Amino acid sequence: MIARSSLPCLTTALRLMRLVCLTIAWVAAVAAILAARPDGMIASVGALAFGLFILLTIVRLRWDSLVILSVLAAVTWLLLDEMPDAAEVLAGGRRVLIFAALLPTMALVRATAMTMPSVHATQRRLGALPAGASAGGQQLAAHVFGGIINTGAFALLSAALPDDADRPQRRAAAEAVIRGMVSSSAWSPFFVAFAIGQNFVAPIYAWIAIAIGMLSALFFTCATLVGLNRDFSLARLRLSLDCLRPVAWRLVIVLLSVLLVALAFGLTALSAVVVVMPLLVLLQLFRHRDKARHILGQTREAMHSTADDLVVITAAMLVAFFATQNDSLAGLVANIHQGQIPGWVALMATPLAMMLLSVVGIHPVITSTALLATFSGGGADVYPALLVQAHLIGWGAGTMSSVASLSVLTCGGLYRVPTRQLVFGDNMLCGFLYSLLGGAMLVAFNFMMGHA
What we know:
Elements: H1 7-34, H2 41-58, H3 63-79, H4 86-113, H5 117-127, H6 131-149, H7 152-158, H8 167-183, H9 192-197, H10 203-228, H11 234-243, H12 245-265, H13 269-287, H14 292-305, H15 307-325, H16 328-336, E1 341-342, H17 343-359, H18 364-375, E2 380-381, H19 384-400, H20 406-414, H21 419-423, H22 426-448
Parallel strand pairs: 1-2
């Protein structure tokens, strides 16, 4: 029996081992991209390290993560006639290795952004906005920051809210930043949602999906700014946009860097992100060496805290990979519907199902991987980029008002608002309309492109 005095040492050792394994997987994923060998020895080593990280993490998963994994295990049992052998598991590990690079990369970017003077200048300007323009300004800022640092935008923007803000003001601000952040998943290559979606289509369609997402996100943002802010005016919109001026050029540089590297070297959007962003951070650290220790420390802590999300996402993608490899999912669908599924069904079902099931606690990663695996690859008569965009809209709509949404849970704590008020408020209706009207817009595009 292990003595109680040795338990802290064992916990520390396991924590360190998890960090080492994930770091090896991160480096291997980037090296495999640079070497253009996604199935080579480097990728295999990274997959093995990533697998060990997952095994070491399972023993400390949160209960909600265990519930999701239990559902995925049941889905796997229903879909697969036989369990994958060692070679197939290794192939699947190489396929999902990119996630071992994405989440740590985003943690590094988030930690760096929190130290930048331009970001702090934006915080100060947001805090000085008049009460009538505060919610709109927070939504716009959350959309811009969320497109790069995801949930890190919540901590950043909550600090800009005045300490004496009353509960209605805090609730309005929390709902606004959730709407702003999650809707940026429609166009941002920095989201896990995009990483999942691009696995089911050719790279060119993923880029087209981003372009379409800029349009859908613009429509959603304009509609909610006008519809939910009674005192909305162009003058107040200009005030809100002025708050973003200190960071505008930096964000443009980041997005253009990712795009240019992807086009120049033929990389997918996700691969470009995990290669370019650490280089940009290194340039920042070279200029501000005094911040290096703090940034690396915050990144290390984030790599520990996001372990649950990493395991859940990886498990879902592995289930989808194995199901599509042995055509078991296609056989199941064939028993329900003969022939190709109409595109309008796929484009409406994907965002609506993701949103509605998220409200009752079913994580979008489960719904989306099942639907994308069903509808992609010719399963539905749909233009591939539109299917990816339907998935991204569904992800944003689903995480807007879900009882299990990390965005809702985080904002509830930071803004000191009960999560039930954030779930059963304006954002639930916004999420439903976003998925419904967004899907309808994509159906129209699909018809115009000659699909059913």
